[in-house]
Amino acid sequence: MPEGGADFVHRMESVLDVYQREYNKNHPVICLDESPKQIISETKKSYMGKDGIMHQLSSTWQKRPIKKLKR
Question: Is the pTM of this model over 0.70?
Answer without folding.
Answer: no
